[in-house]
């Protein structure tokens, strides 16, 4: 029994060139798959975010720590894209916050439109604390006399306007200031 006959067929059924090409292809497929598994970049992972609590008015940066971060990624907080994503290394990046209302938000890393990783309820945006007035000096003013008031308190915003409305008090019939 001949293995290769006069026409170049193996056992009289298969062409020798076709068999060699088939063996090469079957040998290349596992090598290509092994190279893909060995050299592919793993999906990024978000491990933590600092700070994880901010106020509505704060315009700040978040620090992301994780693994396999790259500059080609996009960050979405809730449903709003982050203004900038600055990668320092594969394990650290900074994100500029978009304008967010009070609430709890997920932080998502995207590659194009494909979601790669999500950190659920990662960021809590708290409402801005209200202004508080602790004292007003002087405590009373006489009607019709010019003067100035000093208002003491916390968390005043620039360019506030105070309006004083006289309020009639029947006991001593003096005008007082109400804010």
Q: Helical stretch count?
A: 1
Q: Tell me, what is the CATH class of the largest domain?
A: Mainly Beta
- Strand tally: 15
- Total domain modules: 3
What order do the helices and strands follow? EEHEEEEEEEEEEEEE
Helix coverage percent: 10-25%
Q: Radius of gyration, rounded?
A: 36 Å
Q: Please tell me what the overall shape is.
A: rod-shaped
Which fold name corresponds to the CATH topology of the largest domain?
Immunoglobulin-like
Distance between the termini: 111 Å
Mean pLDDT: 84
Transmembrane segments: 19-39
Keywords: Membrane, Transmembrane, Transmembrane helix
Pfam family, one: DUF4330
Task: Give your account of this protein's structure.
The protein is built from one helix and 15 strands. With 179 residues, it is mostly beta strands. The protein folds into three domains: 9-39; 45-126, Immunoglobulins (Immunoglobulin-like); 132-178, no CATH class. The strands form five sheets. A five-stranded mixed beta sheet has the order 4-11-10-6-7, with no helix packed on it. The chain has a four-stranded antiparallel beta sheet with strand order 3-5-9-8, with no helix packed on it.
What is this entry, summarized?
By secondary structure, the chain is mainly beta. 13% of the residues lie in helices and 44% in strands.
Show the helix and strand layout.
Layout lengths: L8 E2 L3 E2 H24 L5 E6 L2 E3 L5 E7 L6 E4 L2 E2 L2 E6 L2 E5 L6 E9 L2 E13 L5 E6 L12 E5 L10 E4 L6 E4 L1
Parallel strand pairs: 4-11
Antiparallel strand pairs: 1-2, 3-5, 5-9, 6-7, 6-10, 8-9, 10-11, 12-13, 14-15
What structural keywords apply?
Immunoglobulin-like, 1 helix, mainly beta, 179 residues
